[in-house]
Amino acid sequence: MHVTSESAKKAIDGALKKAESTGTRMCIAVVDSGGALKAFYRMDDAWVGSIDIAIKKARTAVYFGMPSGEIGQLSQPGQPLYGIEHSNDGMITFPGGVPIVDDEGFMSGAIGVSGSSVENDDLVARAGVETIGVCDLPEHPWRT
Amino acid sequence: MHVTSESAKKAIDGALKKAESTGTRMCIAVVDSGGALKAFYRMDDAWVGSIDIAIKKARTAVYFGMPSGEIGQLSQPGQPLYGIEHSNDGMITFPGGVPIVDDEGFMSGAIGVSGSSVENDDLVARAGVETIGVCDLPEHPWRT
Amino acid sequence: MHVTSESAKKAIDGALKKAESTGTRMCIAVVDSGGALKAFYRMDDAWVGSIDIAIKKARTAVYFGMPSGEIGQLSQPGQPLYGIEHSNDGMITFPGGVPIVDDEGFMSGAIGVSGSSVENDDLVARAGVETIGVCDLPEHPWRT
Amino acid sequence: MHVTSESAKKAIDGALKKAESTGTRMCIAVVDSGGALKAFYRMDDAWVGSIDIAIKKARTAVYFGMPSGEIGQLSQPGQPLYGIEHSNDGMITFPGGVPIVDDEGFMSGAIGVSGSSVENDDLVARAGVETIGVCDLPEHPWRT
């Protein structure tokens, strides 16, 4: 089950609200459970370089069913997944991408945010998800 | 001058309204005057393959300051721009991408639509532009 | 709903059987409803160049919910979709890619075959689908 | 000499058996001695992001005739192959890719596995190889 257009819109609106309240200028991307772009919004004066990062964060989160930042802890030099960023046409493994999970534990997609500090990016992404679901998957394997 | 977030939203809403009235399921992309993605919306059950086509149509229109379909007439076998689709990481040169031009003749971006016949795609794209400007540029060189 | 591992295996076995009976050496790819690779099999002595073609045919069929060859009729010079092959990291629009549709009209994925004439490719692809479903989608929009 | 279809199938079945016994959900790829995809299988609910990683691990192993994880030790910051992941359209240099070597010391291909911890990935990959050969190459230059 993929995130619907209506839910994607709600998630982006929720993220936007948080971005505005924190005075940040964000790119916000929502992808479906296969990683395909569902909706995207770039605030005025957001970094142009954040477009691709927001989309890649969302894809990273949905491709592995976890927040992008968790993968980043495992991909540091000397850690088990060092270099995973080279897969899948480029992964972004710092915070700001989180899965969208519904009440029944299905991952319907993910949201990715870029444009400020990674703490803010993550905060805004989670604010988006909270309007339509939760970020935490049940133990792998989840249902898709 | 780039299309603003607010204008991009208006353009997408205008396009959506037309898509709904024609019973089509579209991917709708708005890019700024540099071709960078500003906003995107995929209706439920739209073709997954249309995501990239909508974005590429918008980029094609803004990269050359004309509707994507006009370039397609020049890129047919034997015509002067034959093969132009190979440039810029892939152009889409059939109808559905149109520039967004303001009252003073500035091109602020473009909209690209994919998901139905090229006639419908073009119709929906133009409906989007009409909410915020016009599609026709003054004689080249225009002002960006 | 995506094609399951078990169904993908059945589809490949069905396609293989047909390939063997026609004396052809094929690459056979099954993708899920988002276009992600589910299973792949290359027969001994099949063309190496057919690996990518088989995968791209399957993706093309699932991205637009129709046999790849139908798109190819619309993408000829002078036709409405001329140049669509430049989208989505490369589409293959000649026959050999067909959707996999279940009893309820859901498209669960697609199969793509390459290695012989396009007629044979298409025949083998359809033999694969027939072991687990049908190739024909109900009128667009289908359910995914 | 390339891995045959029959051997590739055996290797995947061997890997699958190990994956099932360890309760993991894997993507399993077999490539020939030139790095071209021979067979692929994605278990239900395996990470979508693991498709590309499994294939890249197999390619990495065969391109350099050693387990992917060995290259990863040489590609850490300060080590001689730092950044090798940027070559060959993306290498994956953590464990889970191993060469397939026959009785006479010929490398016929490689297997790559992704979907769990790198220890599990490596275990499953080796279980696949063991059904048809060994993972260890004689001293370079080996025979291909």
From TrEMBL, chains A, B, C, D:
Domain of life: Bacteria
Coiled-coil ranges per UniProt: none
Pfam families: HbpS-like
PANTHER family linked to this entry: PROTEIN GLCG, SLR1406 PROTEIN
Entry protein name: Uncharacterized protein
